[in-house]
Amino acid sequence: MLQNTLDALLARHFTANTPGAVLLVAKGKEVIYLGSRGLANLQTVAAITPDTTFRLASVSKQFTAMCVHLLAQQGHLQLTDRLSLYFPELRHLEGVRLLHLLNHTSGLPDFEEHIPESQQAQLTDEDVLQLTAQQQALLFPSGSQYRYSNTAYVLLGLLAERVSGKNYANVLQEYIFKPLEMQHSMLYRVDALIPNRAMGYRQANNGDFILSDQNIGTATRGDGCIYTSALDYLKWWQALESNFLFNITNQLKTTTSSIDDAKGWKYSMGWFVSDLGNGKYEYCHSGDTSGFTNLVLWQPEHDTLVACFSNTAQNHTFLGELLQELKSFTEYSPKSELVYHLQELTR
Known about the structure:
The protein is an alpha+beta fold. It has a single domain (about 1-345), classed as Beta-lactamase, CATH 3.40.710. Helix content is about 30%, strand content about 20%. It contains ten helices and 15 strands. The chain has helices at about 1-15, 60-75, 100, 125-135, 150-165, 170-175, 230-240, 250-255, 315-325, 340-345; strands spanning about 20-25, 30-35, 40, 45, 55, 185, 200-205, 210, 225-230, 255-260, 265-270, 270-275, 280-290, 290-300, 305-310. An eight-stranded antiparallel β-sheet has the order 2-1-15-14-13-12-11-10, with helices on both faces. A three-stranded antiparallel β-sheet has the order 5-9-6. A hairpin with a 2-residue loop joins strand 12 and strand 13 (about 280-290). Helix 2 (about 60-75) packs parallel to helix 5 (about 150-165) and helix 2 packs across helix 6 (about 170-175). The longest helix has 15 residues, at about 150-165. This is CubicO group peptidase, beta-lactamase class C family. Pfam families: Beta-lactamase (PF00144).
């Protein structure tokens, strides 16, 4: 039943000649559904497969948070440390702690709003640091409210470099990808050869698909530059519960910021968190960037994962229909309304 439903969903939205998507549904160690449709690259006519690597966009944030968590576990830092301890150039932005960056309560200015009009090259993480250092004040006192911040996660990627003494790409490989045998995962670089890479597209008003793989803000790393495949992401998700090094279920429940107390909506360690009551939680995150639209949904109560990666920008109609179809399958359907509000919560 689920197989037929999701096959039909993919067929409604994509053809063998358009950009497409891969869709994974898992329960514990079992893959319940794994399907794909469309092209990873319109020029080479390479089809999307379970090994196709997609830019995760903001789904990358959970990997950045994990690097910081692992460095803390090793005693290299504490989540309560002040940001200025590692970035003296930001000492004038007082009161910001690492935990505030992880949970989007830092108050740091959005770097996207301060890009010089003369900027032509893609921004680097160091560019973001310099732009942030030029700002005279926080948007609000750190820890006082939730405000989604790509700046914060760019700085966390730089933090991992400064603390470890290694390039961030190497930190990811050494701490996460190699231990979990995620052989189809890597960090984007302009000159990097990314195997099985999906290129990103947007659909024009006339229906044509236009290459839209990069823009001026898509080379920053800690906030959204990881490429991975559906099967590699499955390894990652399974490790979050079963591997003691990567198990962050306690942090997801306790190290949180509040988005809406009445609804039980929170943010923690690169995940949106829904407190369903009675000790039950639900986790999700979206990833939207130039040419890509992604969604992951984790329900610990049922030990299930739904992951969808698409190489089409603003592909929210497809994701909306996916969530609608999942309502017929209780184990995989979200219980909270939070997942339907990710677009507004990640602005």
